[in-house]
Amino acid sequence: MIYKELDPFESKANEKMAYYLRRAFAGSEDVDVLNGLVVRSGEVRAQMHHLVMHPFGLIVVENLAVRGTINIEADWQWTQLHRGEHKQIRSPVTETKLQALQLEAFLDKKVRQKGFFHSLELDVLVAVPDLRAIKWPQSGPLLEVCNADQVPEQVLRRLFQCKIEAKRPGKLVGAQRQRLAQFLCASHKVLPRLVTVEEEQSTRSGEFGTTSGAQWSASSRASDLG
Questions:
Q1: In a domain, 84, yes or no
Q2: Residues 6+ apart with CB under 8 A from 75
Q3: pTM
Q4: 225 alpha carbon, distance to own chain's centre
Q5: Which pLDDT score, from 0 to 100, does residue 214 have?
Q6: So what's the pLDDT on residue 180?
Q7: Which CATH number does the domain housing residue 41 bear?
Q8: DSSP letter string over the chain?
């Protein structure tokens, strides 16, 4: 189900992704979507292009406008080559993980059952228009990066993986996801538009620390929140 559509003045990339998610999950009983979500509580602020909810957890989806080509080094450093100029940029995977952690911290402040959201799966996906524009490290493509039109498939693949690995049904049943979606919609701070990851690089870099690596799960993120 789609619980929140985009606010006005969104980018074309966000509109296209919202279309892909709507087409795949508008009638779904297991997957719910909120598009263009911004929440804040004190110093905790999370800005997400798209948030996907399923019985086992949350997936934050970000759109990346790749201009020119991207080179990803073995140490997870990203370098953009555009019009003959090399520019080092912060990893959008890292940035999206930080936003996901901020969302988790926001929710943990608001619920009575502390630690509930930390027990859920928390994943990220960075959508790019063309994977051919990326030169991967020798270790291979990053699990969190895919073409924009592949995001619904990746969401379903992650849901299937969670079902296979789980020993019991997911904690976020439909009624709980509905209440969570209603709460997030009520908490949403309307902005003129959500900027792209590339545009947000400079502002986010001063607010948060860094993480690295392609593997990230609910059990491995405790240290990221401090």
A1: no
A2: 212
A3: 0.83
A4: 16
A5: 36
A6: 95
A7: 3.40.1350
A8: -EEEPPPTT--HHHHHHHHHHHHHHTT-SS-EEEEEEEEEETTEEEEEEEEEEETTEEEEEEE----SEEEE-TTS-EEEEETTEEEEE--HHHHHHHHHHHHHHHHHHH-SSTTTGGGSEEEEEEEES-GGGEE--TT---TTEEEGGGHHHHHHHHHHHHHHH-SS--S--HHHHHHHHHHHHHH----S-PPPHHHHHHHHHTTS-----S---GGG-GGGG-
Within a domain: 82: no
pLDDT at 87: 84
Q: Does the residue 102 lie in any domain? A: yes
| Count of C-beta atoms within a 10 Å radius of residue 75 | 7
> Alpha-carbon distance 30 to 174, whole Å?
7
- Structural domain total, the chain: 1
User: What is the pLDDT, as a whole number, of residue 90?
Assistant: 87
The answer as to whether 29 is a domain residue is yes
Q: Which domain holds residue 188?
A: 2-64+93-207
Mean pLDDT per 10-residue interval, the chain, length 226 residues: 91 92 97 96 90 98 86 84 82 94 92 84 93 87 92 97 92 95 93 52 39 40 39
Q: Is 87 exposed, middle or buried (0-12, 13-18, 19+ CB in 10 A)?
A: exposed
